[in-house]
Design goal:
Blueprint: H1 2-24, H2 26-64, H3 83-107
């Protein structure tokens, strides 16, 4: 019981102290928020580029795969990349462009 009261009191004091500090130092809070947003966009961009690289690797692997003749129902296959991979790659390009625009806006 006392543990819960102590935790609630600590939470209230921490939140109140943060609000008080932000109200007394608005420039620091503004800079901190901008840096946090820039960091989040940079990490999202990094993840999007890694995903795009993996999709490109999968597409090139599909395109370079040699078709082996066989007696199967489906046949040997084709050298064309999967249309879903192509679609995801195009969506990722648009996502990367949007993130780069957001990052340029935040850095100004």
């Amino acid at each position: 019981m006392f543990k819960i009261i102590a935790l609630a009191l600590g939470l209230a004091l921490g939140f109140g102290g943060g609000v008080w500090y932000a109200s007394k130092h608005p420039e620091w809070a503004k800079d901190f928020g901008a840096k946090e947003e820039q960091y989040a966009i940079e990490k999202s961009l990094q993840i999007a580029k890694a995903t795009k690289a993996k999709l490109d690797e999968m597409a090139s692997r599909d395109a370079t795969a040699k078709s082996t003749p066989s007696n199967s129902f489906l046949g040997g296959g084709s050298n064309k990349p999967d249309p879903e991979i192509k679609k995801l790659s195009q969506e990722q390009d648009a996502n990367i462009a949007e993130l780069e625009k957001q990052l340029a806006k935040v850095k100004k």
